[in-house]
Amino acid sequence: MYDRILLPTDGSPATEKAIQQALDLAEISDATLHVVSVADRSAVPPDVRVGMVLDELEANAEDAVTEVRERAENEGVAVTTTVIRGVPHRAILDYAEDEDVDVIVMGTHGRRGLNRYLVGSVTEKVVRLSDVPVLTVRMTDSGE
Question: pTM for the whole thing?
Fold first, then answer.
């Protein structure tokens, strides 16, 4: 069914259902799970010490992929992890193309109305622009 599954994660509790869905899909398909976390350069205001902030963002991203890697290894799922600096939706799409992934598994935060439009959505951008299927896993803001 799938050989390469991409799971972007930010390490937040809201991604839990997407992580489990990706692990289950990888196990069923005997696929390699590619876990990516993006250190969001666009989140760094221009008036701060960029190096220190990016280092912190990368450390958080590394923690996020390490947690999923450990879970995947415990479940016997082949896994590879990557931390990327960039704009999240663009970095995810570029990784998917570069690694020739078959499907992307991402969580949605369940925002509605004006909040959805003001906050924006990495998942929504990936769904609209991806050349490969995107499996979205709906969650609430609390991660349930």
Answer: 0.87
